[in-house]
Design goal:
alpha+beta, 8-stranded mixed β-sheet, 11 helices, about 400 residues, 7-stranded mixed β-sheet
């Protein structure tokens, strides 16, 4: 068995893991990132890059090059609720240079960031590397055992960070307790054609009695999310493809005919929605961040951005202890203390929306624009405040870890 040693071993090469790996390597910490897949090409992952993430990229001097990659820019968010169009957020009112949300496939984001991280001599990315066990030294986690294309590897580490998603192997192996907060829906994702004449400022969300559809513009296609009741995917499958197409068209008539792009139900991918969080994010020698610490609802598309904020805060707080070669439990608890409040605030808002708007609509109630939405339409400056809440999050983390 191969033996390796590093300052920080990060399990998971998603947004949290890759950003943390980049920041720590930039600060002079030796890092190994384990990504269990051979590449980053998995569709229908979070790809709404909010102003908070764009601002982090700007602080790192990466924004201009990052935005050379194909993407769409959204300055305003709107949703159609019944017959009413609600203008919810206006990012152009933000007081930062990045006054928009970028829509970019997550694999492009990860390929870009991993490419930039490889410049640092302390950054090591192992593709098809999957954490399968934890190495223990008494009551402390001292590394991981991993499967790689070259066989099993023991990786001794000052710190192990679980960034391996909502079904985290690391947190399960560590025995960390998960609190399930509940979600009333799942989402069926698919691609449907987008035409050049389609309105670029059209609402992203559409709700009618019994149905909800999200339409994210991506060049010549929409990434569409059809929202169903929790466990409702089996009912959709039983009714068949043609009935599913008609359900989409009933919510958004513009999709009439375009649904023919769906040849079989295999073209539709299920996202099982969960909202949860760890009661304790850490143990001696181990920390979980991102979805491994708190799975988010797709409401607001904030998951990737909250994960990146976790990574920035983690690097800010731990680069010093990691460079010194000792990370205490108190150091790790400081990360949870810093990031737990914005997590709870964000999940609280998501759960409120799920209970008050999504669940009744999916149950067949006629959707109504809440009084706050009507107020947003009436007072455009409030759209700037809402854009600040959605785009920057409950607590924005500035990059404070240095470039070594």
């Amino acid at each position: 068995m191969t033996e390796l040693a590093t300052g920080c071993c990060i399990a998971g090469g998603g947004p949290a893991g890759m950003m943390l790996g980049y920041l720590l390597a930039r600060a002079g910490v030796d890092v190994i990132v384990l990504e269990k897949h051979a590449d980053f090409l998995r569709d229908f992952r979070g790809d709404t890059v909010h102003p908070s993430t764009l601002e982090v990229m700007r602080q790192l001097g990466l924004l201009d090059e990052f935005l050379q990659r194909p993407h769409q820019e959204v300055q305003r968010l709107a949703a159609q609720i019944g017959d009413d169009v609600i203008h919810a957020a206006d990012f152009s009112r933000l007081s930062i240079p990045t006054k928009f949300m970028a829509l970019m496939p997550q694999w492009d984001f990860l390929n870009f960031l991993s490419g930039k991280a490889k410049v640092f001599k302390g950054f090591h990315l192992i593709m098809q590397g999957e954490a399968t066990g934890l190495i223990r030294d008494g009551d402390r986690i001292a590394g991981v055992t991993a499967k790689t294309p070259d066989g099993e590897v023991n990786i001794a580490a000052t710190l192990v960070v679980g960034c391996d998603g909502r079904s985290s192997t690391v947190r399960d192996l560590a025995g960390l307790k998960v609190e399930d907060l509940g979600a009333p829906m799942d989402v069926l994702w698919m691609r449907l054609p987008r035409h050049p004449e389609d309105d670029a400022a059209a609402p992203l969300g559409h709700a009618t009695a019994g149905g909800m559809l999200v339409m994210i513009p991506r060049g010549d296609y929409f990434q569409c999310g059809f929202v169903v009741k929790k466990g409702g995917a089996d009912e959709i499958k039983a009714k068949g493809l043609e009935a599913f197409k008609r359900s989409i068209e009933a919510i958004e008539p513009m999709m009439h005919g375009r649904t023919d792009a769906l040849k079989t139900l295999d073209d539709v991918k299920l996202l099982t929605v969960s909202v949860d969080r760890l009661t304790t994010w850490c143990a001696p020698g181990l920390l979980c961040i991102g979805d491994a610490a708190h799975a988010m609802s797709p409401v607001g598309g904030v998951g990737i951005n909250l994960a990146i904020q976790d990574a920035v805060a983690t690097a800010n707080l731990l680069y010093g202890p990691l460079r010194a070669g000792h990370v205490s439990l108190e150091d790790l608890q400081a990360v949870q203390k810093r990031r737990e409040w914005p997590t709870k605030v964000t999940q609280g808002v998501q759960i409120f929306v799920q209970k008050r708007a999504i669940a009744p609509t999916l149950a067949g109630a006629e959707p109504r624009a809440p009084w706050l939405a009507e107020l947003l339409n009436a007072l455009p400056p409030l759209q700037g405040l809402f854009a600040r809440a959605v785009g920057m999050g409950a607590r924005f983390e500035k990059v404070r870890s240095p470039a070594a």
